[in-house]
Amino acid sequence: MNKKHIMILGVGNILFTDEGLGIRIIEKLVDKYDFPENVSIQDGGVLGMNLLGVISETDYLIVVDAIKNKGTPGTLYRLEGDEIPKRILAKNSLHQVDLLEALTLCQALDKVPETVILGIEPKDIKTTGIELTAPIQERIDALIDMVLTELDGLGARVRLKGGNYLSCA
């Protein structure tokens, strides 16, 4: 059976408090869960355009990031389709703009993955520090649940390390 390739891509800069959210989620996913062969986990950091190669090789892309949307810190977001360019263009960090450009360039390669962006409204993305702020830490499990639900909807069966398969139904 030919399963579609799914990539979970965490982006952000871990040196600026909540800006590192995507990377912190990737770390927790890798530490806590086992994924099927067709699911890859990628720490994208702030690579932006340098991710074009790996992005163009996937069928379904789940991006995890801080999403600045002028909402209350800790608000969860799920963006897809036309929502993505509007929200990313309003971002203050360059990696989101580079990510949008990389997705746009995938069109030239005729290999644009179906993309969803999951994230949390940050409290602070400018202060130097490696710890997430309290409102963001409180929402980490909810964001991980969103990622797992997304995978479940794509038919990817995830297991706790050394444990049973999860069901998000």
Helicity level, as a percent range?
25-40%
Low-confidence stretches: 89-95
Range of strand content? 15-25%
CATH superfamily: HybD-like
Alpha plus pi helix count: 6
Q: What would the average pLDDT be, to the nearest integer?
A: 81
Number of domains: 1
Q: How many strands appear in the DSSP assignment?
A: 7
Question: Can you tell me about this structure?
Answer:
- By secondary structure, the chain is α/β, with parallel strands linked by helices.
- The protein has one domain: 3-Layer(aba) Sandwich (Rossmann fold).
- The protein contains six helices and seven strands.
- The protein has helices at residues 21-32, 52-56, 83-89, 94-108, 134-137, 140-153, and strands at 6-11, 33-34, 39-45, 60-66, 76-80, 114-120, 159-160.
- The strands form two sheets. A five-stranded mixed sheet has the order 3-1-4-6-5, sandwiched between helices.
- The chain is globular and about 40 Å long.
- It starts with 5 loop residues before the first strand and ends in a 9-residue tail after the last strand.
